[in-house]
Specification:
The complex is a heterotrimer of chains A (211), B (561) and C (125).
Chain A (H helix, E strand, L loop, with lengths): L14 H36 L1 H8 L4 H26 L3 H31 L14 H37 L8 H24 L5
Chain B lengths: L1 H7 L19 H5 L4 H29 L10 H20 L2 H15 L7 H23 L13 H5 L4 H28 L12 H33 L12 H35 L6 H14 L15 H29 L8 H24 L1 H7 L3 H31 L5 H28 L13 H31 L30 E3 L25 E3 L1
Helix pairs in contact in B: 3-4, 3-5, 3-6, 5-8, 5-9, 5-15, 6-8, 8-9, 9-10, 9-11, 10-12, 10-13, 10-15, 11-12, 12-13, 13-15, 13-16, 15-16, 16-17
Chain C lengths: L11 H26 L6 H21 L7 H25 L29
Helix pairs in contact in C: 1-2
The chains are: A mainly alpha (211), B mainly alpha (561), C mainly alpha (125).
Chain lengths: 211, 561, 125
Amino acid sequence: MSGAAAARHKPWRSLRREREAASFGTWIFIGSEAMFFAGALLGYAVYRTLWPEAFAEAGRETNLVYGTVNTALLLTSSLTMAVAAEGARARLRRLTLICLAATAVLGLAFLVVKGLEYREDIHKHLVPGPGFKLAGTPAAQIFFAFYWLATGVHALHLSIGIVIVGTLLVQAWRGASPLASPAFESAGLYWHFVDLVWIFLYPLLYLVGRS
Amino acid sequence: MSGITAERAAPEAPPTREDTYLTAETGLASWLLSTDHKRIALLYMAGLTLFFFVGAAGAAAVRLELFTPEANILTADAYNRAFTLHGTIMVWFFLVPSIPVTLGNFLVPLMIGARDLAFPRLNLISWYVFMAAGALAIWSLVAGGVDTGWTFYTPLSTAFANGHVLTAAAAVFVAGFSTIATAVNFIATVHLLRAPGLTWFRLPLFVWAIYATSLVMVLATPVLSMVLLLVFAERAFGIPIFDPARGGDPLLFQHLFWFYSHPAVYIMILPAFGVMSEIITCFARRQIFGYTFMVYAIVWIAVVGFLVWGHHMFVSGQSTFANLAFSFLSFVVAVPSAIKVFNWTATLYRGQIVFDAPMIYALGFIGLFTIGGLTGLFLASIPVDVHVTDTYFVVAHFHYIMVGGAVSAFYGGLSFWWPKITGRLYPEGWARFAAVTMFFGFGFTFFPMFIMGFLGMPRRYQVYPPEFQVWHVLSSAGAVILAVAYLLPMGYLAWSLFRGRRADPNPWGATGLEWQTSSPPPKENFRTLPVVEEGPYLYHPEHAGPPALEREPHRPQGSQQ
Amino acid sequence: MSGLGENLQHDAGAIWRSMVPVWLGLLALLAATLAGAFMPLGRFNLILALAIAFTKAALVALFFMHLRRPDPLLRLAAGAALLFMAFMVVLTFADVLTRRQPTQPGTVTPRTFAPEPPAMGQRAF
């Protein structure tokens, strides 16, 4: 254990073990989040099985351009986040700071595009309830129920991720959080998970009924 | 009796007492901001006691009303709210947390030779989240309550119920975060903080039980969170998820709900299994029979418990094929529980059984859990279930497991580890009396329910035909006895805090690592971290019976270095 | 963390060189799934889209989330959730796909989805 850095928190005795614990703990948490989204996706899957034509008709109403652009933004933000986490591990301060900032900016861009998309959806009467656009296909409302729910919950998770990345950025810039901290790896895992959720939401919400 | 208890107590002359976790820091802030797992366990204990009383009030209202066949005390709506309150609070704010957050929080680091859990600050946050969720739940009660039953079935809960469904659903949703955080903590702790020499198959079965419970918590609770979110969204914003008029499927709600709620019952019982193994080995002075199979049984229950949820839906409109699949899997999941009961019984064989209070609770558990489990098999059989579903038979079944099982184990574990947690011995006579009273009070309360359920008395009914009254009166009278049995320990345990004799580090002569440190433990758990040399429960040499009349264990599991 | 068998890069260029190809692969898959959505493949559209999504997910998990590290603990944590998700989906669909339609003639009136009166119930919080 010579040369092992001291852990930042009890009950850990070495930083290496603390990093291991932080990674493991974050993965378990991600596992639980995966079950959370899986519940929603199961509901989506059941209803898509029961009402395929209604889902196809409703799926065509989503804005493919916004969706694809958002996917590209999020994939790129995963790249910058991965580089930031690796940079933190390699103690490359400038690289870490730049990439954390880029990640946050890309995340914010995603939210901006999402906001524009929501505004358009409301304008097009795609909110379930009286006055829904596809009045002749009641089950289409269920598609959009899942659309609003899934993208809303995803956007909430993304916002939390942006706050976390922003906090790490400020702490790293001020030197309050040493680059050796396990927090960078954990934040990275969380960010990639939010990206993973979107990777599955994209085809299920934007690529339905397009052929 | 006095000879045995005298050995357990520390000598009367006050020694120079070193600081324990109770005295290390003083002041309210040191408790409310503590990241010490032992103090957090006590904080949880306080919250759980409060919620237990709230849930019991719901039960009291129900049982009072059911004394007579007519509706006298409560309106129909109020009655619905009473049983919903009872179920919701007891399940999510008492039973699911109970053993893991009190005994688990306190003991797991001690049993594995660690100084604390893996994420102590997360532990404290879990408590605050739990209490916030409880506050929300109590607020929903005070504001008028919910009448959907703890199961929140749609479309009643989403479209038609007149009650504070949103608040109640939000309360349970928030409580879920606390559960998941606690589970993450335990899993990481058991994987990464075991003492040198403590391999997986040398872990005490209590640790295995908490570990398996945490796995179930982490995988099942999120699905509950999602389904409650869906119900919230549908009720609050009118977006259709389970609304049949717009193509929704109420059965989907039940699938998602029971996917969590069946594993939830395993969350409630697995820690009790762990407590049982600790108590029975100690008070019979025997190694556990079949340690490896006990571990496999715990893991089997945790995994297969996720595959049986449809047995709550046999008459709901689920397809026959699914019914058969779930029925078969439900029989499969009964096997490991049976293995455990057989092994505990075999552990007792040729043991030197001492009928101290924890042992009485444990023996009661074995009997009551067996009955509860066997009646579960009746319910797993579809033809029988069609007859008794939604009757008092089901109510009796799950109360046998949850109350006869889990609550008995909780009280037993509390008694067993009380000297370790508080450094005091409770009065043994009162404790044995309370344990026996609990067993008989429980029987009076819940056995008549099997009979009346089979005879056709439906559950959740306030008004019933007069021929059922005799059973209801028996049951309500039994509930009074049971209430006394629950209150007595609160009394004498509280008394023991001030006037009980001070306890030895190891008053019961048990083998676990937690008994190798002082009672109560110091703040950092051990003066020097222990090294483990043996497996657990070495109350006698391998392959030998217990030496006659000797009370000391053959060898402790490890020792401080 | 070198004990876990991964190669640590120590300069910015090497880090970028290890990550950018993964990103390019992800973007290529995005283009592929977009193009595939417009091809008339019937039921296979969904299968293709999900297959590409799983591939993207595998790239993110293996490279960005470091599952290529030979750490059995992390792989176990990742795999466990997938297993239980599978349990949930398979058994639910065992019900959904095998329900019988009501068949007795004359006993089932055709359903209309005419808007019903608003459901009662206090929507108070």
